[in-house]
Amino acid sequence: MVIKTGHALRNYSSAPPDNVTDVHYDQLKKIVETQAAVVIDVREPWELREYGSIPGSINVPLGQVNVALQLDPEEFKDKYGGDLPQHTDNIIFSCLAGVRSLKALNTAVSLGYKDVQHYPGGWQDWAKNEQLN
User: Fold this and answer.
1) Is 32:92 a contact under the CB 8 Å cutoff?
2) Dihedral of CA 49/53/58/63: which sign?
3) In this predicted structure, what is the pLDDT of residue 6?
4) How far apart are CA 55 and CA 2, in angstroms?
5) Euclidean distance between the first and the last CA atom of the chain, given in angstroms as a whole number
6) pLDDT tens digit string along 63-101?
7) What's the Rg (C-alpha) of the chain?
8) What does the pLDDT read at residue 127?
9) Which one is catalytic: 23, 28, 95, 108?
10) For residue range 47-65, what is the model confidence (pLDDT) as tens digits?
11) Could you give the 3-state DSSP secondary structure of residue 115?
12) Chain center to CA of 80
């Protein structure tokens, strides 16, 4: 499948890359505390307003990930309120329960990002472990 963006045509594969690394709650908790990675939450803004978000995460809805990761850094910061991840940064994608975050991971890999992971438990697991539900 080819996705046309405002910047270029990118091939997009729905198959996960072979080296997908899942991040679990205990790992993510440490990463969030030390800011050792960029956490991108791909839920819709209303979901974050209604349910909450992982501290320090940047909200980039799944439908915008492809274009967002190709913006120039200033545009990205203006639109999403955080720094555009570099292709060498560790990025962890999160959503509600791990489905959308895996799609976002695939998109990032197709754009040349190398150190990408996803949190399959998503917000549901985070809230349970943080006792926020």
Assistant:
1) no
2) negative
3) 45
4) 34
5) 38
6) 999 999 999 999 999 999 999 999 999 999 999 999 999
7) 14
8) 94
9) 95
10) 999 999 999 999 999 999 9
11) strand
12) 12
Q: How many angstroms separate the CA atoms of 32 and 62, rounded?
A: 21
Do the beta carbons of residue 5 and residue 69 sit within 8 Å? no
State how far Cα 119 lies from the chain centre: 9
Is 32 a catalytic site residue?
no
Count Cα atoms within 13 angstroms, Cβ side, for 94.
30
Assess contact for 123 and 99: CB atoms under 8 A. Answer: no
SS3 content of the chain, % helix, strand, coil (to 5): 40, 15, 45
Q: Report the share of the chain in percent with pLDDT over 90.
A: 79
Q: Which residue has the tokens 């913006």?
A: 71
Looking at residue 23, what DSSP letter applies?
-
**pTM summary value:** 0.84
Contact assessment for residue 84 and residue 64, using Cβ atoms and an 8 Å cutoff: no
For residues 40 and 104, the answer to whether their CB atoms sit within 8 Å is yes
Q: Which two tokens stand for residue 127?
A: 């809230």
Q: Indicate the pLDDT class of residue 21, thresholds 50, 70 and 90.
A: confident
User: Which residue shows structure tokens 């440490």?
Assistant: 30
